[in-house]
Amino acid sequence: MTDPSRPPEQTDGAGPGVPPQAASQQHRAAAPRRVRVAVLTISDTRTPETDTSGQYLLTELKAAGHEVIHYRVVRDDAVAIRTTLVQFLREATVVLTSGGTGLTGRDVTVPVVESLITKPIPGFGELFRMLSYREVGGAAMLSRALGGLCRGSAIFAMPGSLNAVKTAWEGILGAEIGHLAFEIERHGQPGVVLSGPAAPALSPAVSPTPPAQARPPVAVPPADVAEAPEAAPRQSGGPSNPASRLGRHKKEEPRL
């Protein structure tokens, strides 16, 4: 007999009576083994050859069997960061960035990422700072690492240090990236057009053009109706002539 005072178990979409832990296991089992990932390093000083954080992510992703479709290093410039992220988000299921999440004047990654996110994942930043606290103590609060969805893709912004990237990958992302891709695509995302012939057309910003309305017929006067005579042209010097009111004064006769 069910205790009415006990709240029902959360099923997390796996069916009635399935505990959350079992549901997560089912989702991981159904998750794709190969995910399309793009990696972006944001730094004024690093190059692809000296980018230890980016190279670490590339190595780990390939070792896990994922497909790295883009890798790039850009400067701490908001326009360059946004331009690159927009391109990556169109083609990758998951985008990983490192760098620019601190508090200095050159750290502009976070506001750019926030402007692109349509569905935040606050748990990523919370977990990252919790794990970082065990390693660096209270300095973990200086990191603004964050994650979220941008329509049909996920983006995670991490600090630029190699140790921080390892913390995020080994403690959070490495084991969940396939599960994350599964959740993104399980029911689709708002504003994302599904691929295939049965995909619905999506044009929320364009209103359908109304059908052209037929013009009403023009009334034609009968042939026996005399046309009205044309109005006689007004005299240029008449009182109703606009030119007479534009400062043109009547020439006076000279006084003798």
From TrEMBL:
Pfam families, A to Z: MoCF_biosynth
Region (Disordered): 1-32, 200-256
Low complexity bias locations: 221-234
InterPro entries given in the database record: MoaB (IPR012245), MoaB/Mog-like_dom_sf (IPR036425), MoaB/Mog_dom (IPR001453)
Sequence ranges assigned to domain MoaB/Mog in this UniProt record: 38-180
Biased composition regions of type Pro residues, renumbered to the chain: 207-220
Protein known as: Molybdenum cofactor biosynthesis protein B
